[in-house]
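A quick word before the example. In earlier lectures we treated sequence and structure as two separate objects. From today on, think of them as two lines of the same record. Here is Apoptosis inhibitor 5 written that way.
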Amino acid sequence: MAVTIEDLYRSYGILADAKDNLSQHKDAYQVIVDGVKGGPKEKRLAAQFIPKFFSSFPELADAAINAQLDLCEDEDVSIRRQAIKELPHFATGDNIPRVADILTQLLQTDDTAEFNQVNAALISIFKMDARGTLGGLFSQILQGEDIVRERAIKFLSTKLKTLPEDVMTKEVEEYVFAETKKVMEDVTGEEFVLLMRVVSGLRVLQTVNGRQQLVELVVEQAFLEQALNPADPDTVDRLLQCTRQALPLFSKNVHSTRFVTYFCEHVLPNLSALTSPVAELDIQLEVLKLLAEMSPFCGDMEKLEANLNMLFTKLLEFMPLPPEEVENGENSASEEPKLQFSYVECLLYSFHQLGKKLPDFLLDKVDAERLKDFKIRLQYFARGLQVYIRQLRVALQGKTGDALKTEENKIKVVALKITNNINVLIKDLFHNPPSYKSTVTLSWKPVQKAEAVAPKRPSTEEMGSGGSTKKQISPQSRRDARQIYNPPSGKYSASIGNFNYEQRGGFRGGRGRGFGGRGNRSRGRIY
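And the structure line, produced from the sequence above:
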């Protein structure tokens, strides 16, 4: 015979009045548990009554939890929400991992209010027993359905950082790191980024040793022991994103040597063959920027001379020779070389940083003819730079506030940063012997507002593709500034001031590609 509303209220009354003798009224509690088999009204009451007396009837614990779970899967959303809201009452002792496991599975709901209810319930039991709750979450991440795994990882990446220190103790954080390393054995690109966000925020890893452990975790994912296949967008994407995750971890004590070495030995030789994983991304510039950002943190390098030579060779490719002159001293009709300012800034900066470790490279390791060729290219590039710097300063002179926020002026500010950076670095290399003492802030890195249109020597950034002007001056301008010189055309990155591919969450959704299966289970890689 079905349990009625009256039966439920009667049984509730018996248990409420029993006080210390609750355990003697097992039959009354069984009636409440059986209420889940009734109609909507009976189910709603059962959802509230079952958890209220749950702890007094351990022999009926399994039946009670299973009954509540039936309500969590009911067709009526209001019954589901009520049942989910009460789930934390079942989270006692050994039941906590089980309840956390159940709640984690319930994250797959598409009902917003229900999803928020599950999140609130998980946070609630986190505060009771963080380690037990994490046990349930990681159980589903390692073994659950893809949708559950995805949402559980997102829960960790957004909620862990909000929990206080008395919940996220040292032991709990160490457990998170240990379990995350297990999950990392087989991850998609998006999962990798989210999990790195989880572990990077752990207080226990905010030490030199902790950051080094995080770098090791990224190195495993980056496959630095394998040769690069430049034609495979997945392989290129993996390297870019792993490098981007490692970058904030590098410091004078946590070195970028393995990444810088890999870029010099495997990426630079294949620079022009790299296949971009994203259509709008300038893959060559992306790679060069990452290399430049890492280079200050490079430690002792086994093949320093060979890697410097590769950087030097690549730099020569982007620094053209001046056009040949005909007999009357004018440029020939051949097309003027393009000055790739954005690329040269990155390469010069990286060369300058590594050059500090082998300051006699240009004097003793480069033959005289090649060095002469390099200096001719440097001089030509420097002449073109001076023209652009003057033009940009004139264009920005007197502009402040909102006037600098127009798209056109933003481009000019960024371009001025790039050209000034290159100018400073070239001057260092013109010293005899070459100097590596100047410091510049890479053009895409944040600078103080006061430096945006610096009065004398502003720092540098990028200008959009083809954003330069062609003012005609004569090649003798270095001797006579009043004579007009015909500079080469300049080229800045088209993504000027908008270098945020690596800052938009890394791997993007929906491309159907990702990290290949690293463990026994392949998860259908997605980004």
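Notice the following. Confidence is low (pLDDT under 50) at residues 448-489, 493-514, 516-527. We will return to this example when we discuss secondary structure assignment.
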